[in-house]
Amino acid sequence: MRALKVAVPATLIMTGLMLCTMASYGKQEYMKKEGVKSCTTCHSKMEGKEAMAKNLNETGKCYAENDHSLAKCKVPDKK
User: Fold this and answer.
1) 59 lies in a domain?
2) Cα dist from 20 to 16, 17, 23, 24, 63, whole Å
3) Is there a domain that residue 76 lies in?
4) Which phi and psi (to 5°) does residue 34 adopt?
5) Mapping DSSP to helix (H, G, I), strand (E, B) and coil, where does residue 43 land?
6) Residues spanned by the domain of 52
7) Residues ≥6 apart with Cβ < 8 Å to 15
8) For the chain, how far is it from start to end, CA to CA, in angstroms?
9) H or E segment at 15?
10) What is the pLDDT of residues 35-73, one digit of tens each?
């Protein structure tokens, strides 16, 4: 009975965490290739896969226009 009191909430929490982390649709290969650590380097807000292309900031638009390269783009400093 004691183990059940711990196992049920732990299972619910783990399920919730797995579902929430699977909602990330960014392309990690872009981040690895360019060495950036945050999605907000190119995106202004994240609201799902369909909205990602619409929510590009200036850096993201520059990245898309320059064959997916940050070489010609100004990357903002995050402090």
Assistant:
1) yes
2) 6, 5, 6, 8, 27
3) no
4) -95, -15
5) strand
6) 2-65
7) none
8) 49
9) helix 2-21
10) 888 888 888 876 665 555 668 889 888 988 998 888 888
